[in-house]
Amino acid sequence: MSSAMDSTTMPDVHAVDGASKFPPFQEGYVGSLRTFQLPPVVKGDERDKTMGKEMIDAWRKEGIFQIHMTPEQGDILRQCYQVSKDFFQLPRDDKAKHVDDQSFAGYIASGEEITAGVADYSEVFTVTKDLPASDTRVMDKWPGHGACPWPNKSYKVAMKELMAQLGESGDKLLKLAALGLGLQDINELLRLTEDGWHHMRVLRFPQVHQSSENGRIGRGIGSHTDYGFLVIANQDDIGGLFVRPRVEGEQEPKNWKSTAAGFHENDEKWMFVPPVENVLTVFPGDMLQFVTNDFLPSTIHKVALNESERYAFAYFHEPNFSTVLRPIPKFFDKIHYGSHFTNMFMRSYPERVTAKRIKDENRMYILQGLKSQSMAAF
């Protein structure tokens, strides 16, 4: 840790009895995550920069960190857990009524989702933008745009409030991430998410059984990366989340090119994320990996079933639906061929007469001017 950090920027490392929560039939080890307290306002001062750098370091090494919840987030999460439990306890036929044929919002039954060719055990309610039929995007038949088929008014109110509060944290996290990445513009990542396609998954997992219908004992959701930008999640006190930190020399999967589902699902390098009270877990998705040109890999994770029924929330802080993403210039390598060729020549033949003349006449300075001119026009 940097000696410049003080108590407002120094991440906590929670000592948790994770072994008692470790799900059965799983391989791996118990993790101890860094936990940060987000500032009320991200100003871009030295404290914010220090915190941002620590967050980036945590993402690159562990793939995940935690943030302390605000009291307001804690209150609304408790409400959301209760209305979710009330909904998931309904008969399946009643739950199945809450779907929409235009949006991807609503109920998803256990076994309906497939990861790496195997049915997942999660039961899900997906919350997306709740758009009326009069919205131009709905009228123009944009894919996935439509109403959210709420179970009832109390569910709608609670989920919308939770989405709003997690969105505020998402905005702060993207500003801190920009500072941690050394970007000149603190809002460079944030701008991508203006009127973002934010959505959330409310998940219920059944109790583990000795035998499994999907052929994988204890498997809740198979290993995968999330296809969005930034993930902010919360789990109850049961435990089931695993992440796979980076392994030196291992090729990072690029899920937008070829599926990452099933990636090293059954090896021993998985880190169990034990449940901690009053925190949110945060990790990058595929599109944050894309815009940083793999500098921030999308976190590979999976979910195991445990000895008791389990609930969790996963909020996705997303770009605008119409946003065109491209690597941030800082992470987008460009090579000026003339400089590349000359440098390779000088390295290979440092004593050649041509190399000596280039040095004597300071022609590398001329080359730098040619490079600058070309890069400016690129």
Plain-language structure description:
With 378 residues, the chain is of the alpha+beta class. It contains 9 helices and 16 strands. Residues 1-7 have low confidence and may be disordered.
Helices and strands in order:
Layout: E1 12-13, E2 29-30, E3 34-36, H1 46-61, E4 65-68, H2 71-88, H3 92-95, E5 106-108, E6 114-115, E7 118-119, E8 123-127, H4 136-139, H5 153-180, E9 199-205, E10 219-224, E11 230-235, E12 241-244, E13 271-272, E14 279-284, H6 286-291, E15 300-304, E16 310-317, H7 337-348, H8 353-360, H9 363-377
Parallel strand pairs: 2-13, 3-4
Antiparallel strand pairs: 1-3, 4-14, 5-8, 6-7, 8-9, 9-16, 10-15, 11-14, 11-16, 12-13, 12-15
Q: What would a concise description of this structure say?
A:
The protein is an alpha+beta fold and 378 residues long. 29% of the residues lie in helices and 18% in strands.
State the secondary-structure class: alpha+beta
The beta-strand count equals 16
Largest sheet: 9 strands, mixed
Q: Between the first and last Cα atoms, what is the distance in angstroms?
A: 39 Å
Which overall shape is indicated by the principal axes computed on the Cα atoms? globular
Q: Strand content of the residues, in percent? A: 15-25%
Would you identify the regions where 5 or more consecutive residues have pLDDT less than 50?
A: 1-7
In spatial order, strands of the major sheet run 1-3-4-14-11-16-9-8-5
Helix percentage = 25-40%
The Rg value, from CA coordinates, equals: 24 Å
Total of helices: 9
Arithmetic mean pLDDT: 90
